[in-house]
Amino acid sequence: MARITLKDVSEAAGVGTATVERVLNGRGGVRPTTAEKVLLAAKRLGYRRALPDTHRGILRIEVILVRPETSFYSRLNHAFERIAALLDKSITVHRTFARENDPVEFAHYIAHPKAHRSALIVVAPDHPDVVQSVRAAADLGIPVVQIMTRPAPELPYVGIDNYAAGRTAGLFMAHMLSGKAGSFVALCHSGAYENHRERVRGFSDYLAAHEDRRQSFTEVMFDFDDEMKTMELLSGALARDPEIIGVYSAGGDNRAVASVLRQPGRRPVVWVGHELTEQTRSALADGTMSIVIDQAPEVQARRSIDLTLSQLGLIEVETAAEPVRFLTVTAENL
Fold first, then answer.
1. How far apart are CA 262 and CA 265, in angstroms?
2. Is residue 65 helix, strand or coil?
3. φ, ψ at 212 (rounded to 5°)
4. Which residues lie closer than 8 Å to 309 by C-beta, 6 or more apart?
5. Can you state the angle between helices 32-45 and 6-13, rounded to 10 degrees?
6. The HTH lacI-type domain covers which part of the protein (predicted)?
């Protein structure tokens, strides 16, 4: 292979050789965006020379997450942290938590980052302002990857097939309660996320396609992953309808659901939910919960970083296009 020269890098970056020399030797006096172009060009060409510490973290991948208090996003955040520690020192993965209940502020943050970003990985609520800002970021020419939920279907997405996850929940529910009369209810965060809507749609569609006239899917409750609201809604539903035999929690409200279903004298139901956490492990182990559908956040983090680095031209790894495989966990395979 021919040796890569400063001229090769300058032509690839669209800048002069003097600028390339300043960047690669850490002499300063070059705008960060220009330095980023030079470093990307050098890496894409396979320029082997060690780069100066002055460019540590200049290639900035921003990850915008929500709800740091939840087990799932805590797992996802820690996965990104572990991956970041193994990357080239010129690459930094900056993790930010945004307020999902303020879509205008969320959109403003995407549109006006506090620092230059080379790429964006985002959990985006399905709100017009947020979706527009995500598309605008992609229009700037940087890699944009949606993770967990896909409100802009034309942009790259890393996550499970949420519709299939919902249908899987329906399949297990129908088979475990085959021949038993009663009703099913579902809980999810809200209609703000495409992934939750798809899970509930898949659950409903499966039950409709495998109709048992003795059973019915009667209610979807929005709890915003608020424990008190979840307990209030589910307790109210169980009190109103003594025929409830199945509960599907499509969001992250598992602690509250377990608390309600463990109440003394509560009639048993089949409960299918998402995310393997300490709470769901305990609920599976004691029989309160029947099945957990886990969407492997560690795999999602790794794949989204690989896809981003590939789009930046920094690695030549073919990233799987199909959805991340979700896992089904019972008390027998904890």
1. 8
2. strand
3. -120, 115
4. 91, 315, 317
5. 120
6. 4-61
Cα–Cα distance measured from residue 307 to residue 299, given in angstroms and rounded to the nearest whole number = 12
Query: Cα–Cα distance between 214 and 179 in angstroms, integer?
Result: 8
User: What are the domain boundaries of the chain?
Assistant: 6-52, 56-157+299-312, 162-294
Q: Do domains 56-157+299-312 and 162-294 have the same CATH topology?
A: yes
pLDDT in the model for residue 52? 63
111-135 pLDDT, tens digit per residue, is 999 888 999 999 999 999 999 999 9
Q: Which two tokens stand for residue 323?
A: 């959805």
Q: Which helix (H) or strand (E) holds 271?
A: strand 270-274
Lowest mean pLDDT among 76-90, 131-145, 283-297: 76-90
CATH of 6-52 given 3.30.70.100, 3.90.70.10, 2.40.170.20, 1.10.260.40: 1.10.260.40
| 67 close to 100: Cβ distance less than 8 angstroms | yes
Residue with tokens 């947020």: 130
Whole-angstrom distance, CA of residue 47 vs CA of residue 287:
58
What's the Cα-to-Cα distance from 135 to each of 52, 65, 74, 118, 121, rounded to whole Å? 34, 17, 26, 15, 12
Any alpha helices (H) in 14-102, and if so which ranges? 17-24, 32-45, 71-84
pTM, entire model: 0.85
What's the one-letter identity of residue 26? G
162-294 has which CATH code? 3.40.50.2300
